[in-house]
Specification:
Jelly Rolls; about 40% strand; five-stranded mixed sheet; 4 domains; disordered N terminus; signal; single chain; mainly beta
Length: about 550
């Protein structure tokens, strides 16, 4: 309350002094008019709170003013003011108003007028001014009572800033401290990774539980403050929670945001028109490897030290780095009739390339999907001729010119590993795989099931071929794994000898009658069995029918 009265008292004293020094009947000099204008500005200003960060919204070309008063009676009154632009460069200045002496001295009237004019102009002084978009702090010391006016101006566009005034320099800092060397060092660069390190903030050593480092990665430029980064992301059309360190909650995420939690590190990836903007908070670790970057791309890195209790932050000096160029993918040559077995890493999601130069006009590509899901893309002399997801056994018959160059690109479409067998050959070449039936499904007959036997059937072809049947006893909880993880390219050589039931040859020129049945005996009652049928053609390479799970009757 005493302080509030003082704030009202000092401006009133200043105004009274001006009235005494400048009678109304006297003509106004330029110095007098300037001071009266300053006094008018004061009465249209807001009080700046002490010890609290204030957000100030600025309209283009319209100045905004705040004032504060240093407490009377203190011998030395230290204070500091920190201004953080959150977008474009701004202009700001600090003006100090001193209370003038009101005692008149005898003498000539003109001499008194000049003296009054000098006193009026000496009452106001500009003690600091700045123009730019960096975070600036002014630290001052006053030995007498004074009123201070802060003036802010944006000449580019509407914007906002934050202002922090404190007259208490003994109870700690609102903003975390930066080390004497606030640079970020790049200590490693890869095709898709960049490793960064920076010196610890003194605040981390003192307040480890309430301080953490947060990293911002983008493809445009560095940011000099956290609020500047947030403003830039918002201006790109995205809503962003107000503070990086305190916004990492799933319910605050926007549709354009993706949150990743890994090894106690929380990341938010923002999808913006200018690329991804990544935010990662990693606690008090001062070394971090940024993963999953794009090759041959320049990235900008900013580290912020954030106080979780006060919501305030300080920015290290940002840096940038360009990831290495991706090496040319290794291309494997395909030779006529030779089978290539390709295993694809689902996590890397990279293309595997095979190249084939045609020695005939008609070319036959064969793909046997062994495991997983695979996308195939075939080009001829750089132009796409086929592109689709593989399923089971797939043939592509293509017609072109002699010495045409075909490029086959394969990619796994799921995170687990996938594999496929590939063959390229002239159209008249001996086929790699046997003639296939209309369906590779195995059928079981429920009415023919007994406690000790199961009857199954499958389709054949018009070509005499060898069929081998295998069985395997499994548990209920193994069904899904057995069906999903089965290698459809593996032959009977991968099976245990005890699982073999029989092998037989058959065919029928009438496809409607090309079906065979087999009753498997010697089974256990109430037991699950996995049945597989392998078809062998002239080349000896088997084709595996879709596995079938059947359970024998429990009671007969």
């Amino acid at each position: 309350l005493k302080m509030s009265w003082f704030w009202l008292y000092l401006p009133l004293r200043l105004f009274t002094a001006i009235c005494l020094c400048h009678p109304i009947k006297a003509p106004a000099t330029s110095s007098q008019q300037s001071f009266k204008t300053d006094l008018f500005n004061f009465y249209h200003s807001l009080i700046l709170a002490d010890g609290k960060e204030t957000t100030v919204h600025l309209l283009k070309d319209i100045p905004k003013r705040y004032y504060f008063v240093l407490e009377e009676g203190r011998v030395l009154a230290p204070f500091s003011i920190t201004v953080t632009p959150c977008d474009v460069p701004i202009e700001w200045s600090i003006l100090m108003y001193k209370s003038p002496s009101t005692k008149a001295t005898p003498g000539d009237h003109d001499t008194q007028e000049v003296s009054k004019s000098q006193k009026a102009s000496s009452m106001v002084s500009t003690i600091f001014n700045y123009k730019g978009n960096s975070v600036e702090t002014y630290m001052g010391m006053s030995s007498h009572s004074a009123l201070y006016l802060l003036e802010f101006l944006s000449t580019e566009r509407d914007t906002h800033i934050t202002v922090y005034l404190t007259t208490d320099t003994t109870s700690g800092h609102l903003y975390p401290e930066l080390p004497t060397d606030p640079r970020i060092d790049v200590i490693g660069i890869g095709h898709t990774t960049v490793t960064l390190t920076w010196k610890h903030s003194p605040s981390v050593l003192q307040h480890r539980e309430s301080i953490q480092y947060c990293l911002l990665v983008n493809e445009k430029h560095n940011y000099k403050s956290l609020c500047a980064a947030e403003t830039a992301i918002r201006s790109s059309g995205m809503k962003l929670p107000p503070t990086l360190a305190l916004s990492l909650s799933p319910y605050l995420l926007e549709p354009q945001q993706v949150m990743i939690l890994s090894n106690s590190e929380l990341s938010i990836i923002n999808k913006v028109s200018s690329g991804e903007v990544r935010q990662v908070c990693m606690g008090t670790k001062n070394t971090y490897t940024v993963p999953n970057l794009s090759p041959s791309t320049q990235y900008y890195f900013d580290v912020f030290i954030v106080n979780l209790l006060t919501n305030a932050s300080a920015a290290y000096t940002g840096t940038f780095a360009r990831t290495l160029e991706e090496p040319e993918p290794k291309v494997t040559e395909l030779k006529d009739g030779k089978v290539v077995h390709v295993v694809l890493d689902g996590k890397k999601q990279k293309f595997y390339s095979l190249q084939y130069q045609a020695r005939h006009k008609k070319i036959h590509f064969t793909f046997q999907l062994c495991r997983g899901q695979i996308r195939v893309h075939i080009t001829r002399n750089g132009k796409t001729v086929a592109s689709e997801n593989l399923s089971g056994l797939r043939y592509f018959s293509l017609k072109g010119k002699l010495l045409d160059t075909y490029l086959v690109q394969l990619r796994s479409t799921e995170e687990s590993n996938s594999s496929v067998k590939v063959q390229a050959s002239p159209h008249f070449h001996k086929p790699l795989f046997p003639l296939l039936p209309e369906s590779l499904k195995i059928k079981s007959f429920s009415k023919l099931r007994t406690c000790r036997s199961v009857t199954i059937a499958w389709l054949g072809t018009q070509e005499e071929s060898k069929y081998c049947v295998y069985r395997k006893k499994i548990e209920e909880d193994q069904i899904w794994r057995e069906l999903q993880s089965a290698d459809r390219c593996s032959g009977p050589e991968s099976r245990h000898k005890s699982e073999k039931v029989l092998c037989k040859y058959f065919y029928d020129l009438n496809l409607q009658r090309a079906v065979t049945t087999e009753t498997i005996k010697g089974l256990e009652a109430g037991t699950l069995y996995l049945f597989d049928v392998y078809l062998f053609g002239p080349s000896g390479i088997p084709v595996r029918y879709h596995s079938k799970v059947v359970k024998t009757r429990k009671k007969c």
